[in-house]
Amino acid sequence: MNSPALSLITGAPAVGNVPRPCSDDAIREALQRVLTSKRFAKARRCTALLAYLVERVLMCVDTAASPPEHEIGVAVFGRDPGSYLPADDPIVRVQAGRLRLRLTAYYADEGAADALRISVPQGRYHARIALADSAGAGRTGPSAAPLLLFNPLICLCTEAPVTHFTAGLNDELGFRLYRELRSLSLASAGRELPPVDRPQALYLLEGSVRQDAALLRVSLVLRHGTGGAVLWYAQFDRARGSDRVSHTDSDPDSDSTIADQEGMAARCVAALQEHLPGCLSLRAL
């Protein structure tokens, strides 16, 4: 973070504020681990924003207050203080959203063993610093939300061969996503969870399988976990003559059917990889 940004942070730690979980030096060491990680190495704006928010907590009078959006835009992103209007320029909101995603990805992978956790709660521009054991205090589920929730594909056909193919494809997709992504939650097939019980993942992957006389079609949709905005929508076709999902299949677990499921899963994951947000990028297949 540059010195002009630091120069806008004023004041001394106030008496009576909520005590920090450890020394300032330990917090800065934890911050440096995050900033030098693979997730943040090339994310210049996210590193600048995170460093500013953490230093503000360490140096400001009111350590629980969120800095104004205007202050961040000027201090971190170099906006002109006289002409910058946060309502017209969303850079702070956009970068804060990306920062939250990168932090979640970091602590799900490289930073899984970190004793201190830094987060930026939704709707605020405030760095929350907590011990790993208490970072998820008050939650009834896992300590960190999964990055991706895979909702098994729905089969839109009633023919047994297609339903068997869909079940196998779901298994192959789940395996490949887990192997490459790690931070993954799998919804139960055939059971729609109420919103209160649904894992609060950052992203949701869902879709369907259907077949007619000419084609087998797999549709995939990637959505934001909150709000449901569609990030990516794709369809994958196979001609009936080139696959083995037909009414003449007598063994849904045959080698040929498994090979078809593996091939379709590979196509889907390869295409998905090109459209995932940066913090969800899969390792090379």
Order of helices and strands: HHHHHEEEEHEEEEH
Compute the CA-based radius of gyration. 23 Å
Question: Terminal Cα separation, in Å?
Answer: 35 Å
Helical content band = 25-40%
Low-confidence stretches: 6-17, 137-143, 193-198, 243-255
Structure annotation, total helices: 7
Nearest-integer average pLDDT:
77
What best-fitting shape do the alpha-carbon axes yield?
elongated
**Beta-strand residue fraction:** 15-25%
Class by SSE composition: alpha/beta
Query: What is the strand tally?
Result: 8
**Major sheet details:** 6 strands, mixed
What can you see in these coordinates?
This protein is α/β, with parallel strands linked by helices and 285 residues long. The protein is 35% helix and 16% strand. The protein has helices spanning 3-7, 24-35, 44-59, 69-75, 91-108, 160-181, 255-273; strands at 116-119, 128-131, 148-150, 154-155, 184-186, 203-211, 215-224, 230-239. The chain is elongated and about 65 Å long. Mean pLDDT is 77; it is low at 6-17, 137-143, 193-198 and 243-255.
Provide key terms for this protein.
single chain; 285 residues; alpha/beta; six-stranded mixed beta sheet; two-stranded antiparallel ribbon; 7 helices; 35% helix
Write the layout of secondary structure elements.
Layout: H1 3-7, H2 24-35, H3 44-59, H4 69-75, H5 91-108, E1 116-119, E2 128-131, E3 148-150, E4 154-155, H6 160-181, E5 184-186, E6 203-211, E7 215-224, E8 230-239, H7 255-273
Parallel strand pairs: 3-5, 3-6, 4-6
Antiparallel strand pairs: 1-2, 6-7, 7-8
Helix pairs in contact: 2-3, 3-5, 6-7
